[in-house]
Amino acid sequence: MMTRRWAWLAMVAWFTGVSANEETQVTHLTDDAGDRQPLQTMIPVYPERARRDRLEGDVEVCFSVDREGRTSRVRVRNSTHRIFEKPSILAVRASTYRPLPDDKTLPGIKTCRTFRFRLTPVAIENPTPVR
After folding, report:
1. CA dihedral 10, 14, 17, 22 (to 10 degrees)
2. Is residue 95 a contact partner of residue 41, using CB atoms and an 8 Å limit?
3. In degrees to the nearest 10, what's the CA dihedral of 86, 33, 57, 129?
4. % helix / strand / coil in the chain, to the nearest 5?
5. What residue ranges define each of the domains in the chain, with the CATH number in brackets?
């Protein structure tokens, strides 16, 4: 009986330590864009339901970049939870790359980016949320 009470108290203490307004972050983990330079990298919005249910996960999204720097053929390659897929796809679609000069040829390279959805704060330079 005493063990249950201590376990319950520990759980209550842990939950009260986790604020409802705590920072949640999506970090850009990897990007295989070759020599294409991003102009604007969008960060996915952490889904409210995932935050409420304390879910974390990773999503790897693969896509192509056209001559004008727009993304296309955006597809999820790997995902630890479906709830994070739509925000990741929207972020990639809203991101832009530097257009290619006229004298350069466009290689047919597929680019992949992995987003990590974590409940603990992570330092990110100038995040731009997608809504």
Report:
1. -170
2. yes
3. -60
4. 25, 30, 45
5. 23-118 (3.30.2420.10)
User: CB–CB of 60/117 below 8 Å?
Assistant: no
Encode 40-62: b = buried (16+ Cβ within 10 Å), e = exposed.
ebbbbebbeebeeeebbbbbbbb
Q: Are 36 and 65 in contact (CB under 8 A)?
A: yes
pLDDT single digits (tens) 38-70? 899 999 999 999 999 999 999 999 999 988 899
**End-to-end CA gap in the chain:** 48
Distance CA 8, CA 83 (A): 30
∠ CA 30-34-36, nearest 5°, is 100
Tracing tokens 């040829």 back to the chain, one arrives at 105
Q: What is the pLDDT of residue 124?
A: 66
CB 91 within 8 A of CB 42: yes
